UniProtKB/TrEMBL annotation:
Keyword terms: Antiviral defense
A Pfam family annotated for this UniProt entry: RAMPs
Family annotation (InterPro entries): CRISPR-assoc_prot_TM1795, RAMP_III_fam
Keyword 4Fe-4S attributed: no
Region spans: Disordered: 258-280
Domain CRISPR type III-associated protein: 26-205
Identification of the protein by name: CRISPR-associated RAMP protein, Cmr1 family
Amino acid sequence: MALLIPDFGPMEKLPESKEAWQEIYCELVTPIYGGGVQAAMPDVLMPIRATAIRGQLRFWWRLLAQQKWNLKEKSLREAEFRLWGGIGEEAAASLVFLRVLDVLNVKQISYFQGSLDSSLPSDKKVRSKSKSNDLKPYAYVLFPMDSEEKREKTLLIKEGLTWTLQWRLSEKANETDREQVLETLRWWVNFGGIGARTRRGCGAFVVKDSSNPVFKQPLSIDEVMKAGCKLVLRTSTNHALLAWKEAVQRLRDFRQGVGIGRNHPSSDTTKPAGRSRWSEPDEIRRITRTHSDRHKPEHPAGDLFARGVFGMPIIFHFVGGDEPADTTLQPKRKERMASPLIIRPVWDGKGGFQAAALSLPLDKVLNVSAELLEKNKIR
């Protein structure tokens, strides 16, 4: 059902500027996961927040500053605080003003079948079989909802929502500031998103119109390479959800697909897939000295946890009484590491969408130390 957005009264007064407001008119093309005040829950009253957009813009600006504009440590920090505002004792007003207007067509959808206010089945197997047909193709990236027991934590904001982002610069901003903000915004509209799990394609949007035509121009593979990233694109389709579906399937198959990430099942089993071709399960078996007779460690890679590069934590679940207990791979002395891989549908500039995989720079990721956690004990 459509939800009306209430009138919140006068907007917070922004600093004066002779700059005219620039507008970017956006439309959501994949559902928003989370994004509200409470974790994993959408906010139907304020689904698009200027503060959240500012946070994303800071991320893309830092990427460009490090990889393209060659700013180093202290100078990068100083430049970031000057342009985007400081934090704590180094607080300073931002030179970039943002506001969100005209949020329309806000609708909720449920990951599981049933009315939005109904309770979920208590049995996990029954609940698993009741996933929404519309969202089943994306279950691989929406998996955190599988274990939720409350309906309100399995709701998403449906694609089709529209909003206008207005932005302008302070009078103190110079031409370099303007060029950097324009490029930062361009990266955000190409690869950013709204809410959580945006690196897996949730909350993706497209620019329908803009006071500056540059925001409707897709970033090319060459432009992406100049920022130390790599972009892979598939054939265009007319629908963003179809492009997202292909991106999700490609990632799922790479990590778990039969004949790619896993062996084919043996003839004497009813299981849908065989043994993993990745090294982590066997290395966990070696470290814990626990394994079934059917799954003696045999992978030659040794002490290698390759899938950690795609983000951590990763929970490894083994089936069988003689196998290791659930084991978590996590960055050392930290709880998580964001994935350097972004998948999502991207606008092709011609009316269609392409499944896209963007690899962010890997230099720091490849040097991250990891540890295994089993039954609250570091292995």
